[in-house]
What we know:
Elements lengths: L22 H35 L3 H29 L2 H19 L5 H15 L2 H12 L2 H36 L10 H10 L1 H9 L21 H10 L6 H7 L2 H25 L4 H24 L1 H7 L3 H31 L4 H31 L5 H11 L2 H7 L5 H15 L2 H10 L7 H29 L5 H7 L4 H20 L1 H7 L5
Helix pairs in contact: 1-2, 1-3, 1-5, 1-6, 1-7, 1-8, 1-14, 2-4, 2-9, 2-12, 2-20, 3-4, 3-5, 3-7, 3-8, 5-6, 5-20, 6-7, 6-15, 6-19, 10-11, 11-12, 12-13, 12-20, 13-23, 14-15, 14-16, 14-18, 14-19, 14-20, 14-21, 14-22, 15-16, 15-18, 15-19, 16-19, 16-22, 17-18, 20-21
Amino acid sequence: xxxxxxxxxxxxxxxxxxxxxxxxxxxxxxxxxxxxxxxxxxxxxxxxxxxxxxxxxxxxxxxxxxxxxxxxxxxxxxxxxxxxxxxxxxxxxxxxxxxxxxxxxxxxxxxxxxxxxxxxxxxxxxxxxxxxxxxxxxxxxxxxxxxxxxxxxxxxxxxxxxxxxxxxxxxxxxxxxxxxxxxxxxxxxxxxxxxxxxxxxxxxxxxxxxxxxxxxxxxxxxxxxxxxxxxxxxxxxxxxxxxxxxxxxxxxxxxxxxxxxxxxxxxxxxxxxxxxxxxxxxxxxxxxxxxxxxxxxxxxxxxxxxxxxxxxxxxxxxxxxxxxxxxxxxxxxxxxxxxxxxxxxxxxxxxxxxxxxxxxxxxxxxxxxxxxxxxxxxxxxxxxxxxxxxxxxxxxxxxxxxxxxxxxxxxxxxxxxxxxxxxxxxxxxxxxxxxxxxxxxxxxxxxxxxxxxxxxxxxxxxxxxxxxxxxxxxxxxxxxxxxxxxxxxxxxxxxxxxxxxxxxxxxxxxxxxxxxxxxxxxxxxxxxxx
Length: 530
């Protein structure tokens, strides 16, 4: 059974906080942005390499969507759970440094792939490594910045997503064309351009990890007047958490909680297996790996949530029993569903339909993408903080804006015959969708206690990954592959997520004020000592 959160809240009298962030806080934020930039360079570079990988490894668009989304996302989400708990109880700077080195090495290893299976294994490794980043970073930012600046700080951090995504197209396209030009028959070790690109963007992360290790670890929760100790045995809790997350040892974790828990766990696994079988039968055996991976992830989350209920009732109550929290993260998951599909398929689509060279794609797609994402997430964060002090659910309105507004430019981009219109429409689609991220992150963080922030972040990313990343790009790729490689139809079809997101976010707006006001009382009712 998972160790109860022995991170107890100390009732001390902290020095009054003036509501400002120190110069060192902004310095730390700058380093964290660099980490996130590299995070998304390593993740998103698959987009500019997609058509070459498809040709060399004999894959379909559905396979490419699986590689970019599901293979990465399931393990990113799955390991984010125990790593989020570790971020709540251990040294967050050390955790991020180790994870950065791991995912950088696995990105470089991707360059040795000779089959889709080998590339899948490497992508799983990248996902596990990257799962350390945001739980630790969100928690650090929340301890370096006061409440009134938190959405802005999280938005600035999140801008690394878009800067890294844009740079991946610029750098990846340049490396591929230069390498293939110099070695048209394959270079050293028989490596071709896309393989060299993986290695070139992966290795610098090892050196950045050394810089990250110099960051000072702040006192957890002190800035909010709730200084909190981490667990005296964080790794004991971490490995216990793994037992509750990693199948099939989840059965052992359930058995330790008693026969009833074991029966419920087995019944859950059987139900998920039936759903996977039905989906595979309806959508074709070619989709089996997609649904097996998704089912694996859903079962792991079910096992973890069941264990959390018995081991840490206060955290379970504030996350899984909070309709407001769930509506916010699932509502943002609908934003991510369409946004991830669009961002991944934009470059391969332009290369196929408009015949644009990779280097030019870097400038026409990558650079505008970096700018639009940066502007969108920063402006969205600022507006979210502005509305937060004026409306009870002000930040959630920004998430709703980010869900609805990108629909028209996305439709225009993938239905036009003009490359110029495609570029402009894609720019605005990303500008508008990116505005939701900082607001969604800050909203979810504000519904839990300081000691729970890492776990809340991991749960937030369950939605963005298992719903958005694992399903969005694959759905677009599957529909494309089923309709003679019609990528336009595939991407536009992901806009069907909008009505679902609308219902979830309107519900969140109604539920958020009461949930935010009742954090302490609901935690106390579940046994939290405050």
